Amino acid sequence: MSVLVYIDTLSGHISKSVNEAVYYGSKLGAVTVLTNGSVDASALAELGKFGAAKVLVHRGLNTNDAVQLTRLVAEAVKASGATKIVFSLDLTGRAVAPRIAAHLKAGLVSGAISLPDASGVYKVNVFSGKAFGCVKVNSAITVINLTPNSISVETGSGTAAVEDFSADCGAASYTVKSVEKQEGDILLPEAELVVSAGRGLKGPENWGMVEDLAKSLGAATACSRPVADIGWRPHHEHVGQTGLAIRPNLYIAAGISGAIQHLAGVNGSKVIVVINTDPEAPFFKAADYGVVGDAFDVLPKLTAEIKKLKAQN
To answer: Residue 294 class from Cβ within 10 Å (0-12 exposed, 13-18 middle, 19+ buried)?
Structure first.
């Protein structure tokens, strides 16, 4: 079976979710990876470690315009004969996968969290991760949007062949006038550990204790929507139903009540730790571990203990 995996590399690097999508595709069949932009060829060749046999690159397309990418993927499907097309469920995947499914009259599996079982049924997240669904596709071509951090990746030793690929993608549907990139060592969508806080921190001047804990853990920082709306933290840190949806291995929430809109963006986390002075805060119902206490007392002590533990090892 021929599998095409589209990956977004416009940031110039290969993300963890890209490796997951390629590895997932390799479990379905022989993988050809498709991308665009100017990412280094040697970095693309490394995708062979995750099961890619070949990487096709459209060097002349330096945009994530969904209409143009749909045409690019359609041409690559025609050239490769792929019957399975895999995307990561990021902003690009959410925009392009439904379009290519409609264009190819293919079934769409959105939010896959597992490989198909013996009968071809995929397990997916539904209702913002509050429930699971089972999806079976009967069309000849299947388009799959893979939820990040839902599978374990094993690294091999192969090298993928990197080839230029050209296609008529048409004119862009919009003009990009400026680009603002997220700053920081760890990008929130790719972070395995996240420390988040809300209005319980009482002001942006108190965020140092959140950043200290995040730094001690090697974690990314996040925040609730009210905190981003009043300008305490940048909007790219906002997680929730109207912000980023993340699935880290550990999510620490301090001073966040746990409104349903916030939970919708984080309830896919493997382990949730909640710190709040209110024992009736709804977030405790979703937490694996809870601390009823003041974040101003708990966060510095937690940071100190983590630093002490690291120093001992």
So the answer is: middle
